[in-house]
Amino acid sequence: MDDLKYGTRNKRGDWAPSEPVQYAPLFLFPTRIVAILKWLPDYFFPWNTIFAASAVAYWAWVIPPIETMQALGIGWIAWLYAVNAISVLFFYGAFELHLYVLKRQENRFKYNGKFPAEQKSKAFWFESQNIDNVLRTFLSGVTIWTAIEVAMLWAYANGHAPWLSFAENPWTLAIVALIVPIIHEFHFFCIHRLIHTPFLYKWVHSVHHNSVNPSPWSSLSMHPVEHLLYFGTAFYHLILPSSPILMLYQLHYAGFGAIPGHVGFDKVEVGEDKLVDSHAYAHYLHHKYFEVNYGDALIPLDRWFGTWHDGSQEGEARMQERYRKRKEKLAARKARVEMGGAAE
């Protein structure tokens, strides 16, 4: 498939889409009903449908009986960890195998023309991005994911979280299901800005940003503190009128949903003529430039806070202008400090 029909490739082999990243029309004003209706299929398919279906499957075949979860026990906790780990291994591993091991679409639609395995760095354990990312995913990521899952299921089983039945509250639960991605986006933006503060970035978030050229296993390669903040999105369901299935959907949206943003390819080829959009470019630009696109493109939070980069020349100019103003402020502050010291 010819990826140059959809974008351009520079001399380094890096690919970029021809069209700038667009925000979802959901929060554009004045409201554009036709645009929203055209966008809705992309909201549901394929990713949100996959994550919601996985939550239903977990509830049907994985989650223990309510009576079992009323007391914390090593047996059912270990069972949930094992299922989460196996699910991550197969889901993440499928993308890794297809795109990075077998390289079935070579570097077509790949933002960074190089592959992580080709580069060694002391920033990673064993100087390998892949080994480092895999170990952090399973040692910390899946562990904290499971711990929060266990805590929430225990809370539901013991009546500490609002649990609505679908039979009695179908519309309320439908609305909560619809806004699960919005909750995730809001939460992710807030904690992302928090961990980009100097202290937390140095000691926590820099672990994730070591993967400047992200791949599937980079998705959950984080410091344990960031894992706790990231999967903390499930705690909204302690106060929302919700259900365990929707809480699982929220967790799966975070856990499995990290893949599209870090897959490293704009489109995944399925067969000879089918393409699935990853919608990863906005987050790829965050890994590339660090201080843009703290959210994705569902809610225009970055636009509202002046940190949006859509991949266009205008977006690049806005970013450079923001950097220039910040340097001027830092230079002015330094000059005032030096003048104060000289006066003494």
UniProtKB/TrEMBL annotation:
Parts of the chain that traverse the membrane: 44-64, 76-102, 138-157, 169-191
GO terms for MF: iron ion binding; oxidoreductase activity
Pfam families named among the record's database cross-references: FA_hydroxylase (PF04116)
GO cellular component: membrane
The UniProt record lists the keyword Cell division: no
GO biological process, one term: lipid biosynthetic process
Keywords assigned by UniProt, alphabetized: Membrane, Plasmid, Transmembrane, Transmembrane helix
Protein's recorded name: Possible desaturase
Species: Sinorhizobium fredii (strain NBRC 101917 / NGR234)
